[in-house]
Every structure is written in C-alpha cells, then in structure tokens.
Amino acid sequence: MRLFLSGGAGVGKSTGPNALYEALIRYLNSQPQNDPDDVSVVKVASSGKAAFNIRGNTLHSAFKIPANRGFNYCTLDRDRFNTIRSQLQRMQVIFIDEISMVGSAMFNFLDLRLQQIVGTKEPFGGLSIITVGDLFQLKPVFDNWIFENSKDGYAALATNLWQKYFQMFELSEVMRQREDKEFAEILNRIREGNHTEADIKILKERILNISSQHSTFLIIQYL
C-alpha cells in the first residue's frame, strides 16, 4: 500500500490521517500475533515543526538519516543498525506528513534505508507508506521535487519511486470554510494560481483597520 493523500487548505489533511492512524493502531493491536508494545505504525515528517504537530519524529531522527551531508547513501554501522532494527523490527506502516518538503534524493535515501532495516531489496522494505501533504506548498530544500529525478549522473536515469509506486487520493470537500463556500473557492484558486481581480478585490474588502491600542491587545492575547 503506497498512498498519497492531498488537497487544499481545510479539507482534512490532518484530521483524516490522524483518524486513519488511530484505526490502524487499534486493528494491528487486536491481531493475536502482534504485541501492543511493538512499534507497528510510525509517524514522521520532513521538518521538526511538522513532526511536533503530529506527535511524531523527523525522517532524519526516525531512520538515522545524516543531516547536512547531502543525499549520497551510507549504510548504518553495526551498533546503529542493531539499535534501530530492534526498535522497528515490527514496523508495518509509515505515515509521512508534509511530503512536499521531501525531495526525490531524500526519498531514494529513505527507500534504501528501509531496505537495510527490514533486510530486503523490496521497495521501501516492503512496508506500507502513507504520505500526506500538498505539492502546491513548500518545496524541498536543496533537492528536487519528489516527482522529479536528479539531472546529475546516474540518478537522472533512475526510476522515479514517487511516480512508479504511489497512488494519489485528493480530499476535495472543504470543511474549515464549509459555511462560506465563496471564500473557500477563492482560497483554492489562489492555491492553484488561478485567482482573479475580483478575488483580490473581495480579499481587500476584508482588511481590518486596527488601532495601535487594539493591535497591542491582540499581540498580548496571542502570546
């Protein structure tokens, strides 16, 4: 199972996967061959903030991917391999949030790391991967988009893992602004770069003129 859950703002990219995660945990823990104390589902994200929001770990931390060393693959030494293998030997499903910030080189590294951890040459170690995000949002840092291959060396000839293995499911019903359909449609047009002058005019009509005293109150309240 290799899935990509996407959609614009307010469609449930956070609540939907969270519900799916909880359902998976309950199901896997109910199976007699599984130990509830084993880590069967792992939640990771591309950045520290995103990982904190989902109560998970970063990709680098969870799978011992070196930071700031490029994306040339390096195997784990024996001690680190034994540690991570003992922690994740029962792993079956991986959730990856903010997938737009995971580049193709990073994704290839993850594929090889999972193969090493599980001990198989199957793509991603034969594990189920559920990715969540919006490819209209932030792109990877110092890497290509996940759906693009590197233009350098042999990597340019390699199969793109994202295009080959992942199936997209788009969440389209806006829940956050469901009482204001017009505004939700404006936000979606802005997301796709198809907004009109009329859209901009409507947004400008919603600008608030806040006094300095009121502004200070709002800042204090936010802090």
UniProtKB/TrEMBL annotation:
Keywords: ATP-binding, DNA damage, DNA recombination, DNA repair, Helicase, Hydrolase, Nucleotide-binding. The keyword Nuclease does not apply. Its cofactor is Mg(2+). This is ATP-dependent DNA helicase. Its EC number is 5.6.2.3. The keyword Hydrolase applies. It comes from Paramuricea clavata (Red gorgonian). GO terms for molecular function: 5'-3' DNA helicase activity; ATP binding; hydrolase activity. InterPro entries: DNA_helicase_pif1-like_DEAD, P-loop_NTPase, PIF1_helicase. It catalyses: ATP + H2O = ADP + phosphate + H(+). GO terms for biological process: DNA recombination; DNA repair; telomere maintenance.
